[in-house]
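User: I'm writing a tutorial on reading structure tokens. Could you give me a worked example: one chain, its sequence, then its tokens, then a sentence or two explaining what the tokens reveal?
Assistant: Sure. Here is the example chain.
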Amino acid sequence: MKDRLYYLWRYFFWFVSRIFCFVYLRPKFNLKVVKTGVKIPKPPFIMVSNHATFFDPWLIGHLSKYPISIMMNEEGFKGSNFIKWYLKNVGAYPKKKGESDIKAMKYTIKTLKKGFPVLIFPEGQTTWDGETQPIFAGVESIIKGSKLPLVMMNISGNFISKPWWSENFRRGKVVITPKVLSKEEVAALSKPELRDTIINHIRHNDLHDETMLKTDFKGPAATMGINRFLWKCPACLSDDTITPTESTVDCSECGASWSMDTHFNFEPLNEKAVKIGNLHDWSLWHKAEVKKQISVATDDDVLTQNKGVDYCDVTDSGEYPVIKTGTLCLTKKELSFKPDDGTDEHAINIPVEEINDYVFQLKTIFECRHKGCVYKFRFADKSPMKWVFYFRYLNDYAKAEEQGFM
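And here are its predicted structure tokens:
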């Protein structure tokens, strides 16, 4: 009886959530679904998709009339009591961001055995610059082991509509292209073949998509907050000098200034600014600069540092009180934090080779783990993404980019 009531509640709650998606989200994003002639199978099944916005689970999930359990970043479960209540009842469950999570994998298998579909974002986090990131290897093992159908969703236009750093929204068009593999088709593929099939379908770049480039996205240009991502000036090569305004992206060091349209194309506004292309081009340039710096640095050279960084306590409430404010510094061998008050209390010195699971959280926080301890560093107006870039390329991320998985 208890299980029956649980199933009925899940179906009812999903039904109500789908009404919200149809009435609010579909018009807001001008959502279009490509008619490929495929139908979402009866549960259980596994659904995978590329990922660009907080709204993706609902934009994709509502296409199923069956309630779907959604694997979601654990930070989402640290908000208000209402958010926790909603996520629990809609079927979401937590996963550590940017890393493999055995506990989440076991819960996925348990959920599938109960007869519920599961939605997984194999990238483990949203795209940074409009291009699908390498997926986490291992999802193909779960799919093969489940012996269930696979539903793959390619979603485009979502990054341009609402990039992760921006509070503003642009209305243009979001397109979802579904593809379904029957359990027999899944069984016929090897794990590498299945992984490649997933990558080939969900891989996408919003800024190179001709359909999106021809779509008029109306709204603010999303310059405000872009310094949470961009940090190095392509004109003078200075770090942490990107200072956006409502209509421009400027360098506080050399005075270079660019405009940015709603498709994230940059145009120089003065002689000091150089041609940089679009946001993806600027991101690629960042990556090249980071790799070049790492290649020529000695073990003791400072790769990057930031002053005025808040070292935060880790809580389950969604609030992260400041323990100390100080300078965060990175060399090829060590991550260090030195408090501004001159004391050694809460000073940090950690070997880089012992640090793992380096991600950004909540737009302003760089997070990493060391021997089971979580460290969170908050940046008021600088880029936490910079730190993720350096750690990734100190750990052979270039290979993951080349092969499409890690």
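What the tokens reveal: The chain has three domains: 2-213, 226-285, 298-401. The mean pLDDT is 93.
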